[in-house]
Structure to design on (366 residues):
C-alpha cells in the first residue's frame, strides 16, 4: 500500500498541477494547494498518530477526569527516549557503513541509469515540448504524465500479485533478479523508443516537390502526444519495477524466511544506503540532463546520443550485476555483514528495544 501510494503521488500530480498552473494565479495555485495539504497533514499527525512510547491501554479512563488533568497526565508520561539498550558507536555507525556495502553499491550501479533518467527526463520535458514547434502549455505537458501514472500503478500491482503467488508456491528464489531484468528491459525499451520517436518527429525535414527543393516546416506535425506519453510511461515503468524490486528484497520485514543465494541481504541499513546512492544519481542527472540533450544550441540534438549511451550503460551494468549476484550471492552477503560489523544476523551490541509506559509512568514489558 505504501509503495502504491508513493508511486501515485510521484507520477500523477503533474497531471493536475499542469492544469492549475494555467489559471490566473499561475504557479501560485499549486504552491498554495500543497501548503494547505501540508498544514492538514501536520494537524492529522499531531491528533491521530499515537506517541510510540505511550501505552493507551483499556484501563485508562479519561472520561471522568477533567480536561486539564487528562492533558497534564498525558504530557507527564511522554518519554522522548523510549529505548532500553545503550546506543553503541558500532550500532550508530551502521547506516554510514551501509553506504559502502557491496549490495548497496552494486544495486545502485545496476539501476541508476534507468531510475535517474526517468526523473531527469520528467524535469526536462518543458525543454523538449514547451518551445516551438510543439509549444505545449503546462496543462498539455501535465497530460504527458497520464501514461507514466497509469503504467506505474499497473506495474506495481502486477509485482505485488507475482510476489504473492511466488511466496505461496515456493520460497520466492530468483524473484529479485527477475525483477531487475524486467525493470531493465522496460526501461531500456522506453528510453530508446522515446528518444528515437521524439527526435524523428521534431527534426526539421527538407522535402522535394516537382524537381524543386523546398525547406518545408513540417516539424512536429506527425508527433502524437499519446505515443510520447506511452513511451515515457515505459521508461517510468522500468524505474518503478527496479525501485519496487530492490525495496522488496532489501526490506527486513518483507521476508519471513532466509533469503536465497541470489537474493540480497535483508538489512534495513543496506536499503538506506541504496536509497542514498540512488538519490545522488537522480540529483546529478536532473542537473546535467538539460545540457546533455541540448548540444550545439539544439534542444533535441543530444537526446538520441544521450539515450543510446545510457541504454548501453544500463545493459552492461545491469547484466554484470545480475550475473554477479547470481553466482556470488552468498559471498556478497558475507561481505555486507563484515562491512556492517555483524557477526551474525542478530545484530551487534544488542538490538535497541522499545519500551512503553502506562498512564502512571510505570514501565511495561514489551
Amino acid at each position: 500500500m505504501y509503495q502504491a501510494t508513493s508511486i501515485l503521488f510521484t507520477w500523477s500530480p503533474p497531471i493536475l498541477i499542469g492544469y492549475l498552473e494555467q489559471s490566473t494565479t499561475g504557479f501560485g495555485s499549486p504552491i498554495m494547494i500543497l501548503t494547505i495539504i501540508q498544514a492538514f497533514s501536520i494537524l492529522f499527525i499531531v491528533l491521530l498518530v499515537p506517541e510510540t512510547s505511550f501505552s493507551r491501554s483499556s484501563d485508562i479512563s479519561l472520561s471522568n477526569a477533567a480536561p486539564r488533568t487528562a492533558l497534564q497526565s498525558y504530557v507527564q508520561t511522554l518519554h522522548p527516549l523510549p529505548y532500553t539498550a545503550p546506543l553503541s558507536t558500532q550500532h550508530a555507525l551502521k547506516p554510514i557503513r551501509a553506504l559502502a556495502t557491496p549490495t548497496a553499491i552494486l544495486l545502485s550501479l545496476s539501476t541508476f541509469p534507468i531510475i535517474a533518467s526517468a526523473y531527469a527526463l520528467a524535469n526536462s520535458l518543458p525543454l523538449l515540448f514547451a518551445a516551438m514547434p510543439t509549444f505545449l502549455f503546462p496543462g498539455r505537458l501535465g497530460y504527458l504524465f497520464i501514461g507514466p501514472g497509469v503504467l506505474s500503478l499497473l506495474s506495481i500491482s502486477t509485482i505485488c500479485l507475482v510476489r504473492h503467488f511466488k511466496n505461496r508456491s515456493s520460497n520466492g528464489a530468483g524473484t529479485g533478479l527477475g525483477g531487475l531484468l524486467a525493470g531493465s528491459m522496460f526501461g531500456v525499451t522506453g528510453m530508446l523508443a522515446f528518444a528515437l520517436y521524439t527526435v524523428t518527429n521534431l527534426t526539421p525535414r527538407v522535402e522535394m516537390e516537382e524537381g524543386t527543393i523546398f525547406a518545408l516546416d513540417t516539424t512536429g506535425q506527425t508527433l502524437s502526444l499519446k505515443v510520447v506519453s506511452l513511451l515515457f510511461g515505459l521508461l517510468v515503468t522500468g524505474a518503478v519495477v527496479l525501485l519496487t524490486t530492490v525495496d522488496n528484497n532489501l526490506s527486513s520485514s518483507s521476508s519471513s524466511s532466509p533469503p536465497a543465494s541470489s537474493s540480497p541481504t535483508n538489512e534495513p541499513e543496506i536499503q538506506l544506503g541504496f536509497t542514498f546512492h540512488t538519490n545522488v544519481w537522480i540529483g546529478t542527472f536532473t542537473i546535467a540532463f538539460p545540457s546533455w540533450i541540448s548540444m550545439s544550441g539544439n534542444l533535441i540534438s543530444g537526446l538520441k546520443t544521450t539515450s543510446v549511451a545510457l541504454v548501453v550503460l544500463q545493459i552492461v551494468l545491469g547484466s554484470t550485476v545480475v550475473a554477479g549476484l547470481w553466482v556470488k550471492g552468498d559471498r556478497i552477503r558475507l561481505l555486507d555483514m563484515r562491512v556492517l560489523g555483524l557477526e551474525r544476523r542478530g545484530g551487534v551490541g544488542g538490538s535497541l528495544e522499545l519500551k512503553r509506559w502506562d498512564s502512571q509512568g510505570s514501565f511495561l514489558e514489551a
